[in-house]
């Protein structure tokens, strides 16, 4: 059943309009510098984050695993992560715990020289639901399966509320995260709804090492679950999917909210190298791309490679046009913010 659900998610994301109604990265406007006074060919895009050196401040965000389709997608994505020297996280690894024969839909990462590898488990699986909670042994198995450097714990409670088979218990998760963070470098990741400042502070207190905001603006899992509900004529879930389609904290605002002394990754709605530059301007260390890479990852490794090349070149063009020779220089570039993002950014200042 879990394999079918994962494959449904991929196909719906490829074929249907499942994005939020507004992409908040469009509300950030960078000031053009007509006299950049730098050599484009000397621009340095390398970054060091959490002890790992990446050629670009870019990660392939967690997407999939656990099905034959996912194996092909992860193979193509991991090849690109190795080729370009960028980070990669796999999708939820729950399937590999429940069916060990699905391990090879993730395990190819172990063979690749990827500078930042991230295993991935769901926060709901940390405690007992209708099924048992993940054990320490399960987590160790998944971490070693891909030769991971970090362990993503993803938060997807809106999706759980909308999907028919969703987990509904969240009590005790923080305590369990604190225990796991004592043994693994944990990255907390949302899946389309963002983190508030209160949540970021709670996670920091439990020993989380970084936060991937996964905010509103890109793929809406409420929308994906809406389309799943349409297939089964589940009117209750269809209604919930529509109601919460645009629920969450915009990605750029969540970066600001999560600036609590931990590295912050900006993901949720990133489409191109200009959006990646905006992540850096807002204070993010890395930008995560997911759905925008999915179609090419499924269909053509060559097209996927071209897409990432274009993304990287556009990022460098943004650096050039702001007179930024390094990613640290880009952090100082001038910009302004318009509505509706502006009100979200100032919300905690009132």
TrEMBL record:
<keyword id="KW-0285">Flavoprotein</keyword>
<dbReference type="GO" id="GO:0008299">
    <property type="term" value="P:isoprenoid biosynthetic process"/>
</dbReference>
<feature type="binding site">
    <location>
        <begin position="92"/>
        <end position="94"/>
    </location>
    <ligand>
        <name>substrate</name>
    </ligand>
</feature>
<dbReference type="Pfam" id="PF01070">
    <property type="entry name" value="FMN_dh"/>
</dbReference>
<keyword id="KW-0963">Cytoplasm</keyword>
<dbReference type="GO" id="GO:0016491">
    <property type="term" value="F:oxidoreductase activity"/>
</dbReference>
<comment type="similarity">
    <text>Belongs to the IPP isomerase type 2 family.</text>
</comment>
<keyword id="KW-0521">NADP</keyword>
<dbReference type="GO" id="GO:0005737">
    <property type="term" value="C:cytoplasm"/>
</dbReference>
<feature type="binding site">
    <location>
        <begin position="290"/>
        <end position="291"/>
    </location>
    <ligand>
        <name>FMN</name>
    </ligand>
</feature>
<keyword id="KW-0479">Metal-binding</keyword>
<dbReference type="GO" id="GO:0004452">
    <property type="term" value="F:isopentenyl-diphosphate delta-isomerase activity"/>
</dbReference>
<feature type="binding site">
    <location>
        <position position="120"/>
    </location>
    <ligand>
        <name>FMN</name>
    </ligand>
</feature>
<feature type="domain" description="FMN-dependent dehydrogenase">
    <location>
        <begin position="260"/>
        <end position="333"/>
    </location>
</feature>
<feature type="binding site">
    <location>
        <begin position="269"/>
        <end position="271"/>
    </location>
    <ligand>
        <name>FMN</name>
    </ligand>
</feature>
<feature type="binding site">
    <location>
        <position position="92"/>
    </location>
    <ligand>
        <name>FMN</name>
    </ligand>
</feature>
<protein>
    <recommendedName>
        <fullName>Isopentenyl-diphosphate delta-isomerase</fullName>
        <ecNumber>5.3.3.2</ecNumber>
    </recommendedName>
</protein>
<feature type="binding site">
    <location>
        <position position="219"/>
    </location>
    <ligand>
        <name>FMN</name>
    </ligand>
</feature>
<dbReference type="GO" id="GO:0000287">
    <property type="term" value="F:magnesium ion binding"/>
</dbReference>
<feature type="binding site">
    <location>
        <position position="189"/>
    </location>
    <ligand>
        <name>FMN</name>
    </ligand>
</feature>
<keyword id="KW-0288">FMN</keyword>
<feature type="binding site">
    <location>
        <position position="159"/>
    </location>
    <ligand>
        <name>substrate</name>
    </ligand>
</feature>
<keyword id="KW-0414">Isoprene biosynthesis</keyword>
<keyword id="KW-0413">Isomerase</keyword>
<dbReference type="InterPro" id="IPR000262">
    <property type="entry name" value="FMN-dep_DH"/>
</dbReference>
<dbReference type="GO" id="GO:0070402">
    <property type="term" value="F:NADPH binding"/>
</dbReference>
<feature type="binding site">
    <location>
        <begin position="5"/>
        <end position="6"/>
    </location>
    <ligand>
        <name>substrate</name>
    </ligand>
</feature>
<feature type="binding site">
    <location>
        <position position="160"/>
    </location>
    <ligand>
        <name>Mg(2+)</name>
    </ligand>
</feature>
<dbReference type="InterPro" id="IPR013785">
    <property type="entry name" value="Aldolase_TIM"/>
</dbReference>
<comment type="function">
    <text>Involved in the biosynthesis of isoprenoids. Catalyzes the 1,3-allylic rearrangement of the homoallylic substrate isopentenyl (IPP) to its allylic isomer, dimethylallyl diphosphate (DMAPP).</text>
</comment>
<dbReference type="GO" id="GO:0010181">
    <property type="term" value="F:FMN binding"/>
</dbReference>
<feature type="binding site">
    <location>
        <begin position="62"/>
        <end position="64"/>
    </location>
    <ligand>
        <name>FMN</name>
    </ligand>
</feature>
<feature type="binding site">
    <location>
        <position position="61"/>
    </location>
    <ligand>
        <name>FMN</name>
    </ligand>
</feature>
<keyword id="KW-0460">Magnesium</keyword>
<comment type="subunit">
    <text>Homooctamer. Dimer of tetramers.</text>
</comment>
<dbReference type="InterPro" id="IPR011179">
    <property type="entry name" value="IPdP_isomerase"/>
</dbReference>
């Amino acid at each position: 059943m879990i394999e079918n659900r994962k494959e449904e998610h991929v196909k719906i994301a490829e074929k249907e309009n499942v994005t939020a109604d507004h992409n908040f990265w469009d509300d950030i406007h960078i000031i053009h510098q007509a006299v950049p006074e730098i050599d484009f060919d000397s621009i340095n895009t390398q970054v060091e984050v959490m002890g790992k050196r990446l050629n670009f401040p870019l990660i392939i965000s967690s997407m999939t695993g656990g099905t034959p389709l996912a194996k092909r997608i992860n193979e193509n994505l991991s090849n690109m992560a190795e080729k370009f020297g960028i980070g990669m996280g796999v999708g939820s690894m729950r399937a590999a715990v429940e069916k060990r024969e699905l391990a090879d839909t993730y395990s190819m990462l172990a063979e690749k020289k990827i500078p930042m590898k991230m295993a991935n488990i769901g926060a709901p699986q940390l405690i007992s639901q209708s099924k048992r909670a993940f054990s320490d042994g399960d987590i160790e198995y998944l971490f070693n399966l891909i030769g991971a450097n970090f362990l993503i714990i993803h938060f997807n409670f809106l999706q759980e509320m909308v999907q028919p088979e969703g987990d509904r218990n969240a009590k005790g998760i923080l305590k369990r995260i604190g225990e796991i963070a004592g043994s693994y470098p944990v990255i907390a990741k949302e899946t389309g709804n963002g983190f508030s400042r209160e949540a970021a502070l709670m996670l920091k207190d439990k020993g989380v090492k970084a936060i991937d905001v996964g905010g509103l603006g890109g793929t809406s899992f409420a929308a994906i679950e809406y389309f799943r509900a349409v297939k089964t004529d589940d009117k209750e879930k269809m209604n919930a999917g529509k109601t919460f389609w645009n629920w969450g904290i915009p990605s750029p605002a969540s970066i600001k909210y999560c600036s609590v002394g931990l590295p912050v990754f900006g993901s949720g709605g990133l489409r191109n190298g200009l959006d990646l530059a905006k992540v850096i301007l807002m204070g993010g260390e890395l930008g995560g791309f997911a759905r925008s890479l999915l179609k090419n990852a499924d269909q053509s490794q060559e097209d996927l490679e071209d897409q990432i090349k274009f993304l990287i070149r556009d990022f460098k063009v943004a650096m050039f046009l702001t007179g930024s020779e390094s990613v640290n220089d880009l952090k100082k570039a001038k910009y302004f913010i318009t509505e509706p993002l502006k009100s979200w950014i100032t919300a905690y200042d009132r």
